[in-house]
Design goal:
heterodimer; A: about 270 residues; alpha/beta; seven-stranded mixed sheet; 9 helices; globular; B: about 500 residues; alpha+beta; four-stranded antiparallel sheet; 14 helices; 5 strands; about 75% helix
Chain lengths: ~270, ~500
């Protein structure tokens, strides 16, 4: 059975041209730009100071002219893959993990940052980790109101939960206060309401949902149903085949953009 | 199997991630190898090669006439011969271990010990190699020497014994068959003397004899029958003689008168004519007599016998009587002869009937005799072959054993040398942890290859994102690796130095 599945998988692979994983060519970007709808209503400049290069490096965020070109290329190719599939249209994408510790916060942040690097595009990173113990983004200094306050609380204006992160054309929606007590009440309708509100306020931003492992979290599963695309993050040497299989069970194949193998260790002294 | 470099990468990555594990494995293996190279027991091995020449000049010459002991058996036996109690105790004695000094169990153990160190191998069909290993080079040499010499002596002796015993056996067989042959010869002789008549072809003789006897008997019977008839005839004649005698006498007197007158007439006719009155008278007389006779007997002619016996009736009877008795005697003789012949015939016929049984018996005896004779002559031939074989062995001309390579004094210990052990240890220290990592990767089932992931699930892998380490982390990792590498190199240098110094005798451990 497994063999047959593999064969079908291979066949499916060969149908689609392989996504380039290495450096993105300039011509590709230009091709994509032709389809990009230039947003009419950009984020207004908040006047918050942008993060310096050193700060970006400390926070492990993609920046132009990184010392480690491998990381930069791999993250940019992620963006390219997304833009190819969405054909430049504003899309919602879920970044979820096979299991905790795969580093999907790193991937989602950098995907949002990579999108925002293009001056014609903008991105919103939505922290869907409703459990408090799921960690924080490194660039967050103040939690503030967020997702749960908009969906379950009294925050009615979507602009109120968008927070600047010190990166041009990129915003963050934190998980919000008292997120944990609303854990069970998140529904598709409510998610759609929020996406609609964002789309009403701004045309153009790509919304990146960062969610806990899809196999074990109901929130992630709801988001997987509602988002346009899903990126599954696997951790090198940490994720087992079984957990990949379990995660794929919850993702509709047509929505799956692909798997990202994260945290591949580098050999010392720059060896191949 | 071609190893994909991509498959090695995860191993290298893991190795870099766990430098302590690598260093610990390497250093411990190095130290163990050093210890092993120093304390590895030095074993000296001496060997001797014995050439077994099977095809010597005698072989083709004596082909078929003498049997030579084969080399294969010899090689096969070599191990057994060398582990025999006699040879091993000889070796032990040379090593200064005497059975009277030790307890029986200890001595037995010492023997087993020696046996374990002996290695006998047949290197080529004609070459037997004897090896002996010992911690002491001198002892190894001496023991190998003793072993090879003893082996040669022992195999020569055993071969002699073998051909001797073969000869003895055949000789005994020959004697046995000689006796058997003698017995059957005796039997044959006795039988022949008992049944002489039944020589070969006797049957035909007896048959012809029976035929002639039967002919004779039928002759005699014929004669007897004739004699009986004659006897009956004579008897009849004798009883009828008295009645006719008178008649015969009258006739006879008339005839006699006529005859007398005829004679008178005949003489008268010589002197006188027929008209002479006397002649006429005589004629008349004869005529009257003839008429008288005619009147008495008629015209019937007279029997000649009657004429022959006519002269005297008394003599005829006597003659008849004599004949009668003679015939009677003849009958008695013939009867007794007939009886004799009949009894002889009966005997011959009995004998004729017995012939097949006797012949069968004779055949049996003959067969036994022939079988014995065949075996006996065959054995005689074999005994001569065995004698020659025995002589060949006695003269050491059969299977020749000679020392191809004499035992020597080993100067360097056998087994792995120190540097080999050391090198093996170093390689092991380097690769064993990697092997363990490889096995661990096989077992834990975690994803380490983007390609494997795509193949396994048929889902595109968009990107492989390298781990992004901060400068501090990267520096710490590098420092860690450098530190451990330094420890490994220092250990290696230390181990090699100690090993070299030890082999040079500068330090002694």
């Amino acid at each position: 059975m497994k063999l047959i599945e593999q064969a079908i998988g291979k066949h499916r692979n060969s149908d689609k041209p392989k996504q380039p994983r290495q450096a993105v060519r300039r011509s590709d970007i230009n091709k994509i730009r032709k389809h990009v709808v230039v947003p009419t209503n950009q984020f207004d400049d908040t006047g918050l100071p942008l993060l310096t290069e050193q700060e970006l490096e400390e926070k492990r965020i993609l920046r132009p002219g990184m010392k480690d070109s491998h990381v930069e290329n791999s993250l940019v190719s992620l963006r390219t893959a997304l833009l190819r599939r969405s054909e430049g249209k504003p899309a919602t994408v879920l970044v979820t993990a096979c299991d905790s510790g795969c580093g999907n916060r790193f991937i989602s942040t950098n995907l949002a940052a990579a999108i925002a690097r293009d001056e014609h595009l903008s991105s919103i990173l939505v922290d869907s980790h409703l459990r408090a113990d799921n960690g924080r983004y490194e660039f967050l200094t103040d939690q503030g109101v967020g997702l749960s306050d908009f969906i379950f609380g009294d925050v009615r204006n979507v602009q109120d939960i968008l927070q600047p992160v010190g990166i041009e054309r990129m915003r963050l929606i934190p998980s919000g206060s008292n997120a944990q007590q609303h854990l069970g009440f998140l529904t598709s309708a409510k998610i759609n309401t929020m996406i609609g509100a964002i789309r009403d306020a701004y045309s153009g931003p790509t919304i990146v949902f960062d969610a806990p492992p899809v196999a074990t979290t109901p929130t992630a599963r709801i988001l997987a149903d509602e988002c346009d695309f899903v990126i599954l993050v696997a951790g090198y040497g940490e994720t087992s085949n079984q957990s990949v299989a379990a995660s794929l069970d919850h993702i509709a194949p047509e929505k799956l953009l692909g798997i990202v193998l994260n945290k591949e260790p580098k050999l010392p002294f720059g060896a191949g | 199997m071609i190893i994909d470099l991509k498959d090695l990468r995860p191993i290298a990555v893991s190795a870099a991630k766990h430098p302590t594990f690598m260093a610990l494995g390497f250093c411990s293996a190095c130290l163990l190898a050093l210890a092993a190279s120093i304390f590895w027991p030095r074993v000296y091995t001496s060997d001797a090669a014995i050439f077994v020449e099977q095809k010597n000049i005698l072989g083709p010459l004596m082909e078929g006439a003498a049997v030579q002991t084969g080399v294969n058996e010899q090689s096969r036996l070599a191990g057994d011969i060398l582990s025999s109690r006699r040879i091993i105790s000889k070796v032990l004695e040379a090593q200064g271990i005497k059975p009277e000094d030790r307890s029986a169990v200890e001595f037995e153990q010492a023997m087993d010990n020696i046996r374990d160190r002996i290695q006998v191998s047949v290197e080529s069909p004609n070459l037997i190699s004897i090896e002996y290993s010992d911690k002491d080079a001198q002892r190894a040499y001496l023991t190998t020497k003793i072993l090879s010499e003893s082996f040669m002596a022992e195999s020569a002796e055993s071969k002699m014994e073998e051909s001797n015993s073969a000869y003895q056996f055949i000789d005994n067989q020959v004697k046995e068959y000689e006796n058997k042959l003698r017995v059957s010869e005796e039997k044959l002789k006795n039988f022949n003397s008992e049944n002489q008549a039944v020589a070969p072809g006797a049957e035909g003789q007896i048959r012809s004899r029976i035929t002639s006897l039967e002919e004779q008997i039928s002759d005699i019977e014929q004669n007897l029958r004739e004699a009986r008839i004659r006897e009956a005839g004579l008897r009849d004649q004798l009883s009828g003689e008295n009645k006719t005698a008178e008649k015969v006498a009258v006739t006879n007197s008339l005839q006699v008168q006529i005859d007398t007158l005829q004679e008178e007439l005949n003489s008268l006719r010589l002197n006188y004519h027929d008209e002479y009155p006397t002649i006429v008278h005589v004629k008349e007389q004869i005529a009257s007599l003839k008429a008288q006779m005619k009147a008495e007997y008629g015209d019937q002619p007279r029997l000649p016998t009657e004429v022959s016996v006519v002269d005297s009736t008394g003599t005829t009877t006597a003659l008849l009587q004599q004949n009668y008795y003679e015939t009677k005697l003849q009958i008695a003789t013939l009867t007794s002869r007939l009886e004799d012949k009949l009894s002889v015939l009966a005997t011959e016929q009995t004998r004729m009937r017995n012939i097949p049984a006797i012949e069968l018996q004779l055949k049996e005896i003959n067969r036994e005799y022939n079988v014995n004779q065949t075996i006996y002559s065959d054995l005689l031939r074999r005994r001569e072959i065995a004698r020659v074989s025995m002589n060949v062995d006695r003269e050491q001309q059969g299977l020749t054993l000679r020392v191809q390579e004499a035992a020597y004094l080993p100067l360097t210990p056998g087994g792995p040398r120190s540097y080999q052990i050391l090198a093996a240890g170093l390689l092991f220290g380097l690769f064993a942890p990697l092997g363990l990592i490889f096995l661990y990767h096989r077992v834990d089932g975690k994803i380490r290859h983007a390609d494997h992931l795509a193949e396994e699930f048929g889902v595109p892998v968009i990107s492989t994102v390298p781990q992004m380490l901060s400068t501090k982390e990267a520096r710490r990792t590098t420092a860690n690796i450098v530190l451990h590498s330094t420890i490994m190199i220092l250990t290696l240098i230390g181990v090699v130095t100690v090993a070299v110094l030890n082999s040079m005798g500068v330090i002694s451990l």
